[in-house]
Design goal:
Structural class: alpha+beta
Radius of gyration: 26 Å
Distance between the termini: 19 Å
Number of strands: 4
Strand order of the largest sheet: 2-3-1-4
Shape: rod-shaped
Length: 178
């Protein structure tokens, strides 16, 4: 049962509360069908169905942060080891090279892993919006961490009536705005 809504400003935030996952998925599908993609989905538990519906199987952009961190870290650590060895040369018998790759592989590997992990963490924090310090008040509903799912629009724009109709018809138990 949806709440009666009062006409409000066109850019007003909209919040829909769902008790069942299948109704939420239907709401996401209906919103995507009409080309509306700027909304936030809230869930009390991680559900792969929600992720598949929102991202349509696209891989996470965090993988590029990992690659960049690994390449940067590996090259920086190898350069550090090679330049340090070149600045304080030792007498190397037998014509062996001053900067030899095999002795530096271990430290290069460790630097690659360290920097890739740090960049992965930064990429994850950036792409998930953590820490979430400036959330709109509609997202502070305790039901979203207990037993309900939700869709929140920070700004509904000129499509307020259409958005509210889609959310109500998809099975939302409560749709509010303003």
């Amino acid at each position: 049962m949806s709440q009666a809504h009062v006409a409000g400003p066109a850019g007003a935030p909209v919040k829909a509360v769902y008790r069942h996952l299948d109704c939420l998925l239907q709401g996401i599908h209906d919103l995507h069908a009409v080309g509306i993609k700027e909304f936030t989905v809230l869930s009390p538990i991680p559900r792969h169905e929600i992720e598949e519906m929102i991202y349509k199987g696209e891989p996470s952009p965090v993988r590029w942060f990992t690659l960049a961190g690994g390449l940067l870290g590996g090259s920086m650590i190898f350069s550090l080891a090679a330049l340090t060895h070149a600045n304080w040369p030792m007498i190397i018998p037998g014509g062996k090279p001053l900067v030899s790759i095999p002795p530096f592989l271990v430290v290069t590997f460790e630097g690659t892993i360290l920097w890739a992990a740090m960049f992965t963490l930064m990429g994850m924090l950036k792409n998930t919006g953590l820490p979430a310090v400036n959330l709109p008040p509609q997202m502070h509903d305790p039901r979203f961490t207990n037993d309900c799912f939700g869709i929140v629009f920070e700004r509904s724009g000129s499509r307020l009536a259409e958005i509210m109709h889609i959310l109500e018809s998809s099975g939302a138990t409560e749709v509010t705005h303003g």
